[in-house]
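Session log. Operator J.P. requested a structure for one protein chain; no other inputs attached. Running the standard single-chain path with token output.
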Amino acid sequence: EDPSLERHFKGHRDAVTSVDFSLNKKQLASGSMDSCLMIWSMKPQMRAYRFVGHKDAVMCVQFSPSGHLVASGSRDKTVRLWIPSVKGESTVFKAHTATVRSVHFSSDGQSLVTASDDKTVKVWMVHRQKFLFSLSQHINWVRCARFSPDGRLIVSASDDKTVKLWDKTSRECIHSFCEHGGFVNHVDFHPSGTCIAAAGTDNTVKVWDVRMNRLLQHYQGNAVVNSLSFHPSGNYLVTASNDSTLKILDLLEGRLLYTLHGHQGPATCVAFSRTGDLFASGGSDEQVMVWKTNFDAADYGDVPKTQKSSTSVEETHHALSEMDCGVHLKKTKTQDPGRNHVQQEEEISLANTLEHIMGQLDVLTQTVSILEQRLTLTEDKLKECLENQQKIIQNKTS
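Structure written below.
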């Protein structure tokens, strides 16, 4: 069965720049050149929230792993962290000295990486919105930056035509991939963390192995590729291009599977849901579309949470089979006889409880942060009042 259009959201008043699903797929966030962030409900008849706060175009949005926060970056040089609820409260911090093109949470939700036209990549602590460090070797705008699934590496893509791989601990650039013939619009890690894919204005998508730093695959399109997203199984990649199409690539076969037409004008952004049964796209036509994946349903009924890389992979294998990461290993539904259902249910409920606690922590942090901001405002006002009083006193005495 081919992928099919499931939902269609209209509400933005300018080009959509970015889309992302929450963990539970109940919400979809989108950013737009209209300076707004929208949170759409996947439940029919539920109204969307429009969040206003940025003073200029919103370039990027992403849900935190727990789904209790949404980060957005803007042309107004700031990053905002929102609570995706009716109130839409947010904290704001000046992140860069130019447009913020990209925001991305680490998989533990503790760190945020941002990329900007000021040519730097910055890493922040989410809970205090505290700046940690800058990575500055790019010599042009940085369009995109992502953490690896294990949080040890950062990859960044720039208009200097390079993709750089950084070690988060040493803060060193470990490798620069320079094979792009144009600006690099988007980059992301394969779910296994062993490969990266990058999309460029030279109409290509390139897949590299980050262990051996070599090109594994190269897809030549006929239009600028703006965005890409890996399916959680690691077997597929979806791309969004200026020719208004979305394309689904089969990475195991190394070929184009589907070309989807839905947008009028350039397709600007695309993202799979965390389970992979849906993907969303946005375009210059101000529309957000949600698609049902429909392929390979048997494959990702339960995607392994962390994909263990298959033990010894013959390095001499055909380049593709090296996208090891147990990509080929279909998960068989064998029930371990030693484990009863009760134990599994207990584990599930524990996981849910932990997730709930993490969510509450996010909200608390956010609240504290909002309070700190209000306190600062109050202190500023107080200072102003005291200064004014002193002026009045001085005027009277003089």
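Operator note: Residues 298-339 have pLDDT under 50 and may be disordered.
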